[in-house]
Amino acid sequence: MRFDIITVLPGLLESPFAHSILQRAQKKDLVDIHVHNLREYANNKHKSVDDYPYGGGSGMVMQIEPFAACIEKLQSERKYDEVIYMTPDGATLNQQIANELSSVENIIILCGHYKGIDQRIRDIFVTKEISIGDYVLSGGELPAAILVDAIARLIPGVLSDETSALSDSFQDGLLDAPIYTRPAEWRGHKVPDILLSGHEGKIAAWRDEQQLERTKQRRPDLLND
Ligand code: ADE
Fold this sequence. Notes:
With 225 residues, the chain is an alpha/beta fold. It has helices at residues 20-27, 64-77, 95-101, 119-124, 141-152, 163-166, 193-196, 200-218, 220-224; strands spanning 2-7, 32-37, 50-51, 61-62, 82-92, 106-111, 128-131, 185-186, 189-190. The chain has 9 helices and 9 strands. The mean pLDDT is 96. Bound molecules: adenine. Adenine is lined by residues 86-88, 131-133, 135-137, 140, 143. It is found in: Cytoplasm. Residues 1-224 form the tRNA methyltransferase TRMD/TRM10-type domain. Homodimer.
């Protein structure tokens, strides 16, 4: 699966993909991530990509031409399934959206800055608008990294133990059960006896019960959907 991320701050996206699971996924050619510097597509000598908003108001707006030039160049090279704009007014990212996107081939992700991007980019090129939550960040780069991580780990072969993505919180609509490792007792705090019992059936039933309880307590909204 290929991701093309368009940004004015490519340096912000150097590190998130250079470690651990995502790094291995790229080495195994399961994921291909390309970061494009929007300024290289600016059509003026100062390499500026923003301008004042029509109608007045505070903040600058990212212009259509550089985005159009970069998107159209990419689209002339291969077919893209989605052009996604990271924005706080998009649909809130959840496991279902990540699951759906993990089965496509090629995705372009646009990172906004300043006041946002010219509405015509959204109208003409963007196929999905995604938010990572009801708060505003300084730009779309960190949201883009979060989206890529959430999708890439679902691609078969990316996680060494595929079942571990299936048992993630949210995959079955519930939060995860508590987990423990050695030592069995630390400063008087004990691991629940059931987990040491070796009784698989009872452990599975305990985990189901804990998942339900935790979800009821912390995220009752998940049970009402
Ligand atoms: N850009 C700025 N804030 C954002 C958010 N919450 N989600 C996605 N993109 C953003």
